[in-house]
Amino acid sequence: MAYLLEHKDGIVTFTINREEKRNAVNDEVMDGLQEAITYVEQNNDVRFLVVTGAGEKSFCSGGDLSVFHALETEDEAFGMLSKMANILYKLATLPVPTIALINGTAVGGGCEIATACDFRLMASHAKAGFIQGTLAITSGWGGGTYLFERGLRHDRALKMLVDAKAYDAQVLYDIGWAMRVFEGTKRGALADFIEDMRKIHPSVHQAYKEIELRKWRERNMYERVMEEVRTCARLWESEAHHQAVNSFLTKSKK
Ligand SMILES: CC[C@@H](C(=O)O)C(=O)SCCNC(=O)CCNC(=O)[C@H](O)C(C)(C)COP(=O)(O)OP(=O)(O)OC[C@H]1O[C@@H](n2cnc3c(N)ncnc32)[C@H](O)[C@@H]1OP(=O)(O)O
């Protein structure tokens, strides 16, 4: 199974379960994340949604290039990108707090998933970055748009995007992208992080999230996310992008 879904003590945990592919996202993972979101929407006893990856090496390495390299044109790319962008928009606008429990490398779309969550807790050995630029594309699942809304200084957010490289956890904490850097188990880090929040009535959490979401609606977040998708789709069909993906896939096979 490409993902695991668990509901325990009010916490729904969605785990991308493709360690051998560094938890890359394929259609099954996308559908699983949608399933997790629908479950949270329909069950009032869910207090938190946690997204994480199996193992210790990777949180998520972004879109599965071995599958999505088959998408050649702008229209083909738009189909895949907008599917995940819509799912991440639902994740980002859930009424319960969402937590990216970053157990290992989070790059490309993996960094976008983490940015769509309210909070990012990072293992000290983990790295994260919007490395899409190395593939001659921009972020395409809405992550760039969320990044500019996450309260980081504008120059730091922009630098993350244009550097297109993975940063250490401590750097990401220093610039305000990661809220905590943890040693030890992710279960322990999560329990510690939600200890105070747990004591607060869920209606209060929902009310605060609604304040933030009202601001997002006023700022046309959904339309901006879809514009990001279109931009990425346009770059996707370039020769530079297809060459960069081929070069990654060929290197992997050696
Ligand atoms: C499509 C949407 C777009 C977006 O909108 O954001 C994207 O997400 S683009 C995808 C961006 N992601 C990448 O470019 C990441 C590529 N992967 C890596 O850079 C590295 O694999 C890693 C994540 C830094 C991990 O490095 P390492 O620990 O050294 O592992 P390997 O490189 O040896 O990988 C092991 C295994 O996994 C396969 N793999 C890794 N990432 C992907 C991926 N994104 N898609 C498909 N397959 C992936 C890799 O090919 C290896 O496979 P084998 O050679 O068969 O063992």
Automatic annotation (TrEMBL):
UniProt superkingdom: Bacteria
Residue intervals passing through the bilayer: none
EC number: 4.1.1.94
Keyword Transmembrane helix: no
GO cellular component: cytosol
GO molecular-function term, one example from the UniProt record: methyl/ethyl malonyl-CoA decarboxylase activity
CDD domains in the record: crotonase-like
Subcellular localization, as worded in the UniProt entry: Cytoplasm, Cytosol
Reported function: Decarboxylates ethylmalonyl-CoA, a potentially toxic metabolite, to form butyryl-CoA, suggesting it might be involved in metabolite proofreading. Acts preferentially on (S)-ethylmalonyl-CoA but also has some activity on the (R)-isomer. Also has methylmalonyl-CoA decarboxylase activity at lower level.
PANTHER family assigned to the protein according to its UniProt record, in alphabetical order: ENOYL-COA HYDRATASE-RELATED, ETHYLMALONYL-COA DECARBOXYLASE
Designated name of the protein: Ethylmalonyl-CoA decarboxylase
Organism expressing this protein natively: Metasolibacillus meyeri
Native organism taxonomy: Bacteria, Bacillati, Bacillota, Bacilli, Bacillales
